[in-house]
Amino acid sequence: MASPDKDLEPVLDKDGVRLTVDDAIATVTLTNPAKRNAQSPALWRALTQAGRSLPGSVRVVVVRAEGQSFSAGLDRQAFTPEGFDGEPSFIDLARGSDAELDATIAEYQEAFTWWRRSDIVSVAAVQGHAIGAGFQLALACDLRVVADDVQFAMRETSLGLVPDLTGTHPLVSLVGYARALEICATGRFVLAEEAERTGLANLAVPAAQLDDAVRDLTAALLAAPRDAVIETKALLRGAQERPYEEQRTAERASQARRLRDLAGVGD
Q1: What is the pLDDT of residues 73-97, one digit of tens each?
Q2: Do the strands 60-65 and 121-126 form a parallel or antiparallel pair, or are they unpaired?
Q3: Which of 177, 184, 194, 234 has the smallest C-beta neighbourhood within 10 Å, fewest atoms?
């Protein structure tokens, strides 16, 4: 896959993550294609730092990856006794207290939480393998555009683990409990046609058209006024938890704010 962000001066470029900003558009690129963009705690910290480094001008964040795979998931080196250089191995973590283990996993999850901030719309551009943590990174985003060679899989259960990088909530929201359970428990691949049909992907395109499709979607997202998009995103996110009557009330309150803003009338 091409690298449309390489001509821009990076805001961040470390541990397999590059962040570039072009006015209202930020691009987060996974940059270790030799390892199929396998993930590590260092990469997760870099993703967290990327979220904290976004300028206020950014409205759309695209996450993409160099090479043939979006991300093959967790680097298996994490399960070896030696782990990663300068990092405790997962075996060492398992020997720690419950509080220490909980705090460590919570820190890892921060890399996957900021993508749904109310002030941005995040888009995952996904090609090839998106497995485990790779699948969960795509699920962390608001929208997903996939190449026709995409292969989603949630392999944690097959390894005796559970998906713990925030992917379970969006997965169930998108495809329902029964299909989510079947995807996770079997670890099977979800290909492009099924991903688009079930709502995992907003759009599936030939791999050669992935960059263009994401560019077109980004332009469409930027065409609407920023405040209206922010209000609409918050309204739709809340609809998953609110009863019908409460959602009607939220709609009225949001619309009142928008009308006052447009009319230049203060609260």
Answers
A1: 998 887 777 778 888 788 888 889 9
A2: parallel
A3: 177
From the number of C-beta atoms within 10 Å of its C-beta (0-12, 13-18, 19+), residue 247 rates as: middle
Structural element, H or E, at residue 147: strand 143-147
Radius of gyration of the chain (CA): 19
Pairing of strands 143-147, 129-131: unpaired
Q: Which of 147, 157, 156 is nearest to 195 (CA)?
A: 147
CA distance 209 to 50: 26
**Nearest alpha carbon to residue 14 among 35, 34, 28:** 28
Strand-pair category, 190-191 with 151-153:
antiparallel
Q: What are the Cα distances from residue 230, in Å, to 66, 121, 133, 223? A: 30, 9, 27, 13
What's the pLDDT tens digit per position in 93-140? 888 999 999 999 999 999 999 999 999 999 999 999 999 999 999 999
pTM of the model: 0.93
Give the bridge partners for 126, in sequence order: 146
* Contact residues for 126 (Cβ-Cβ < 8 A; gap 6+): 65, 70, 138, 144, 145, 146, 147, 150, 152, 201
